[in-house]
Specification:
With about 140 residues, the chain is mainly α. The protein has a domain at about 5-90. Helix content is about 85%, strand content about 0%. It is built from one helix and no strands. It has one helix at about 5-130. The longest helix has about 120 residues, at about 5-130. The chain is rod-shaped, with a radius of gyration of 59 Å.
Length: about 140
Amino acid sequence: PVDPLSPHAFNDLLLNATNLLQRMQTAYKEKVDYIASFQPELDAQREEFEESETRARHLKMQLEDMSRKAQEQDIAMQELATQLAKEKIKAQEAQEAARRSIRVVRMSLNEQEGDAEEETSKRRKRGSAGSQASDSGFESDIE
């Protein structure tokens, strides 16, 4: 039987405790080093994530800006389309008014021509009613 209070037993206990503490300290240091080796990668991933969030916010702002500009352009195009429609209506009205005035002028010209033809035909009738034979100064075989 070994005496637990002997200096040799105490020395063995001290050596075992020291070895155990050294192994635990070595394991702890290895774990800390292992975790520390991942830290730069984690930092890089965190930085990439922050950059991607920044890009996403920037793209969202650009998209909102583009959307606003597109809405403004749509409104402007609708206004232009309305103005164009009004101009087309004005042009059609002006064209129709010009056609009406041309018809009126043609009708008045036709009336004037009709009056002139009536006068001409009346003159012809008057002129032909007065003498049917003409004296041209030449003799003809019929006489």
